[in-house]
TrEMBL record:
SUPFAM superfamilies hit by this protein: NAD(P)-binding Rossmann-fold domains, TrkA C-terminal domain-like
Domain (RCK C-terminal) ranges: 152-231
InterPro entries: NAD(P)-bd_dom_sf, RCK_C, RCK_C_sf, RCK_N, Trk_Ktr_HKT_K-transport
Bilayer-spanning residue ranges: none
One Pfam family of this chain: TrkA_C
Highest taxon in the source lineage: Bacteria
Chain ranges of the RCK N-terminal domain: 16-134
Protein name: Ktr system potassium uptake protein A
Organism: Microcoleus asticus IPMA8
Amino acid sequence: MNLSSLNFFRTLRADNKQFAVIGLGRFGKAVCSTLHGLGYEVLGVDTDEKKVTQALTDRIAAHVVQLDSTEPSALGEAGIFEFETVIVAIGNYLAESITTTLNLKEGGVSHVIAKASSETHLKLLKKVGADHVVFPEREMGCSLARLLTQPSILERFDLDPDHSIVELLVPEKFDGKTISELDLRRRYGLNLLAVGRADKFEINPQPNERLKKGEAMVVVGSNKDINRLPI
């Protein structure tokens, strides 16, 4: 997540309880199902009758309607312009995705989050006013590549292009050494945030604690320094 994304999420109201999701493919269904499971009121939308029927059967949203989101009148009649946040999950149909995003912004929707399927798609969505664009295929591809080349890194949160927070397995070279002995800040330019043992993390562990191979550790720093770890 970059700083522009952070600025966007700061504008979202924590007390917003309603969301609309347009496009009920795999991505849209996952968004609907998760929001619905968390107790939010979700309106699911798709042009495909089969997808609408399946969404109703699976109960992934409070309400599901079939409509053409490229028609502003249809969106208005369904009350979608009244939603504060709408997710456009029509990633594989570029024209429909862009037109829908434009309609939502012109209809007064404050926060439009759209899924992109290519770099060109991403740029066009930004041009027509999308407030935040997600690119799940690219993000998954980057994550997979990192897992394949750095299997000891379990999770990574990108702070910006040059800095990250990563969860990784304690390297064999660190086995049995105390945090003080490792002196990660001086040797690697990294700060240790937490150590994972069993099923819980210990935040800000004490300097005299010993690390064991197979445990997890969470560090923050530059990607260049993270790559210097003996993993």
